[in-house]
Amino acid sequence: MNNKATKALSSCIYLLAVGSIVAGTVSCKGHLFNKEAVISGVIRNLDDKQLLLLQEESDSADTISVKADGTFRYRFAVEGPSGTYLLYIPETSTPVYLYVRKGARIRIRFDANEPGQPPTLRGNVANECEIVRRMNEAFSGDDPEEIARMSFPEYRKKLMDEYTAVVKLLKKVKDRKFAESALKELTARRDYNLYCYRASYKLYVAPEGDVEDAMFWDFARNIDLNDIANARSGLTELVLVWDMQSAHIERSDLNVLKELARRVSNQEVLDCLSGECMYSALLNETAVESLEETYALFTRICRDTATLQDMEQAYESKITAIRKFGPGKELLDLEMEDRNGTKVNLSSLKGKVRYVDVWASWCGPCRYEMQFLEELAQRYEGDDRLEIVSLSIDTDREAWLQTAMPDRPGWKQYLATPQSRQVLEEEYSITAIPRFMLFDGHNRIIDIHAPSPSDEEEIDRMLQEWLGPDGNSTAKRQP
Fold it and tell me: Which keywords accompany this UniProt record (predicted)?
């Protein structure tokens, strides 16, 4: 799915969470055996002897070492409720979806030379793991161009066949609490994907029109915007966004909040979605006036005390950062060390547009983005107007050296000094990674919340806008 379509569809819930700037670990010491889960197995023909374990909605990742013979075993305490985990194999970009509860035993077999073949899972939660896998793969969003080539009845039959297959698996699960919860989420994901037909149709069939199929509108009219399950699946926001598009209302977090206040009455839904809108505005908004207006409306809609408190603190920090680090402002310099320990200042790269990737070796999502960063470097290989800077905030130099990509022309690896780590956290307000920043050739800020390399279309658009066609890295001038 291309990035334009992904944005247009409002996307599905992604398992990979943003990494925290403070390394997190899962400890198994001092816990009873029945509170533990064990993940083990064998992965053949793996050169990179490391795996990453991420928990859904968590802000950290754990590294699992693989022995020379391909075997691994990882035991950890399950302190909270059961949930979805992702075992990620960086070398082959293979995700292995897992369901983990206290006492779970999961055995995995995989051959890195056969990345097209899914891993084989065995153990006492094997059925649950298969259900989680199918829910994430079958209901994570099809290519919108493929959807647009089908009639709605054809697309609905495809989804219903997949839905029915997972329901049959659920009947084999002994844990009825899991089965009931999974069925609710499965139904919400099914309906989300069914509504995606409208987005595909408007993108590729009738940009100025809308779906003409009566079966689709029978389904759409029965969507309950006050159902919290629809809010959590993303369906409620998807309906609002595409109704706004049809009414020629600009899509923005502020306008989504206005539609939310107008069409939704369930306070639980209002709290959930207004918080998401405000979080999005804090990440993406760069104009003080727009952010102030969005925050004012958010505080009128949301009634959840914890959410209001969290957003108030984040809002104050963002307003301060915008005023200090808005587009056109002078960059606050950062001291960095290369592999040899030689100190280099970010400002010394003046004359080039700089795309800075702030990451760490322990951050799973950061390492996930590396494959896309490598593709970005390949696309701009030989273009001396651009310098890609991977800036690690690791405190363990050896861990950084072991995980950093090789240096190459136009893309260098650096380690932030202790002083720079403090500047990144306290001045640039980087409290979650990966984070990407863009600076122009005059040491001025373009965007300290630049698109990620996985958002290929958006980052290419921004880079091409600033690089210019004539070798002048400051082709676009700041006001």
Answer: Cytochrome c-type biogenesis, Disulfide bond, Redox-active center
- Domain range holding 37? 3-134
d(CA 213, CA 55): 40
Run of H or E including 219: helix 214-221
Supply the angle between the helices 267-284 and 305-325 in degrees, to the nearest 10.
Answer: 20
Does residue 45 sit within a domain? yes
Q: Each residue of 304-357: pLDDT tens digit?
A: 999 999 999 889 988 887 888 878 889 999 999 999 999 999 999 888 999 999
Cα separation, 370 vs 172, in Å, equals 39
Of 54, 12, 42, 4, give the one whose Cα is nearest residue 367.
Answer: 54
Domain C-terminal end among 94, 112, 134: 134
pLDDT in tens, 198-225: 999 988 998 888 999 999 999 999 999 9
How crowded is the C-beta side of 289, counted as CA atoms within 13 Å? 0
Q: Is residue 145 part of a domain?
A: yes
Q: Is residue 44 part of a domain?
A: yes
Domain annotation covers residue 266: no
Q: Of 95, 76, 172, which Cα lies nearest the Cα of 131? A: 172
pLDDT exceeds cutoff 70 at 59: no
Phi/psi for 181 (5° steps) reads: -65, -45
| Distance (Å, whole) CA 202 – CA 190 | 20
Task: Give the contacts of 469 (CB within 8 A, at least 6 positions apart).
Answer: 475
Residues 31 and 119 occupy one common structural domain = yes
Same domain, 46 and 105: yes
Identify whether residues 358 and 403 lie together within a single domain. Answer: yes
Query: What's the number of domains the chain is made of?
Result: 3
